[in-house]
Write the structure tokens for this entry.
Amino acid sequence: MSELAIMGAKCVCSFGQMPADLKVTSQQKVLTDGKPTATIQDVSPMANIGPFGLCSSLANPTVAAATAAALGVLTPQPCVPAPAGTWIPTKPTIIVSGIPVLCSDCKMMCAYAGNISIVMPGQMKVTAS
């Protein structure tokens, strides 16, 4: 079962070194656990998705150049997200402000290979005893 991603959710890139925070800017009216609920349009580098530490993908031009300069020794470089489109919705029937919500099982392709995914959506499960 997937959970809704909200402001402060943690994202990872398959070629990144560390998680990044998700900032919700696509809408501010619908809240989950008191925080804005993310939509598939929260994709802008730095505005919505922070850096992932160092990138190790040779498809990233800065990594390729640094690796070539180091005579073929992989030389990771700062990872600035490069989304290739929007998040791929897994629950397209759940709509917020006319846009499908972002769920914990959504993924997005990175322009430099790999994919970006949600590792901690931020929504807390509530159970009654």
Summary: Residues 61-69 form the longest helix (9 residues). The longest strand covers residues 5-13. The helical segments are 61-69.
